[in-house]
Structure formats: C-alpha cells, structure tokens
UniProtKB/TrEMBL annotation:
Protein name (record): Pyruvate-flavodoxin oxidoreductase
GO molecular function, a single term: oxidoreductase activity
SUPFAM superfamilies, sorted: Thiamin diphosphate-binding fold (THDP-binding) (SSF52518)
EC number: 1.2.7.-
Residue ranges of every copy of the Pyruvate flavodoxin/ferredoxin oxidoreductase pyrimidine binding domain listed in the record: 13-99
Biological process annotations from GO: response to oxidative stress
Source organism (scientific name): Escherichia coli
This protein's UniProt keywords: Oxidoreductase, Pyruvate
Pfam family, one: POR_N
PANTHER family in the cross-refs: PYRUVATE-FLAVODOXIN OXIDOREDUCTASE-RELATED (PTHR32154)
InterPro entries, per database record: Pyruvate:ferred/Flavod_OxRd (IPR050722), Pyrv_Fd/Flavodoxin_OxRdtase_N (IPR002880), THDP-binding (IPR029061)
Length: 106
C-alpha cells in the first residue's frame, strides 16, 4: 500500500493520462506541477508509453492558452491551478466551451 495525499494522487492520474501538461506554479497546486515536471524529467511514461511534455508558463493565462492550443491539435492536456488561478482562466475556458459547442452542432 502506498500512502499519498490528494495532490499526489491527482498529479499521478493526470500525468499518466496526459500528453501535454501546462504548469504555472501557484500554491496549493505547486506540488502537483513539481511532481509532473520531475516525472517527465525522469522519463516516466504515460499510459500510451510516451513521456508527457511539461511546459512551464509565465502566468495562469499562458497555462490555459497552452492547454487550449494542445486540445486544438488533438492532444490530451492538463493544467493544475488554485481557485485564484482558475479565476484568471475563465475567459479562455468560456472560449473552449464555445468552440466545443460549435463543433458538436456541426
């Protein structure tokens, strides 16, 4: 049995199911970003046998824009954030939702 906290569990699942991970360290999600970066640096593989690409951005807006771009190319993407960071991501999340809705109506 392995004992880990919630951040470790989320980071583990997200790392293993992502192809691109956009990070901007912000408490309390910094540990998840640091773990993902360390795992990628050590060559840990995801469920598809590839090492996810971890990209550190200079802001939360940059992190969610990276996720947006990765999703547009068909890559599975993840970002970790806090409640304050999520507020900064809302405009891009609305854009993503609108694009998904438009695609589903075609």
């Amino acid at each position: 049995m392995i004992t880990i906290d919630g951040n470790g569990a989320v980071a583990s699942v997200a790392f293993r199911t992502s192809e691109v991970i956009a990070i901007y360290p912000i408490t309390p999600s910094s540990t998840m970003a640091e773990q993902a970066d360390a795992w990628a640096g050590n060559g840990l593989k995801n469920v598809w046998g590839d090492t996810p690409r971890v990209v550190e951005m200079q802001s939360e807006a940059g992190a969610i824009a990276t996720v947006h771009g990765a999703l547009q190319t068909g890559a599975l993407s993840t970002s970790f954030t806090s409640s304050q960071g999520l507020l900064l991501m809302i405009p891009t999340l609305y854009k993503l939702a609108g694009e998904l809705h438009r695609l589903s109506c075609m």
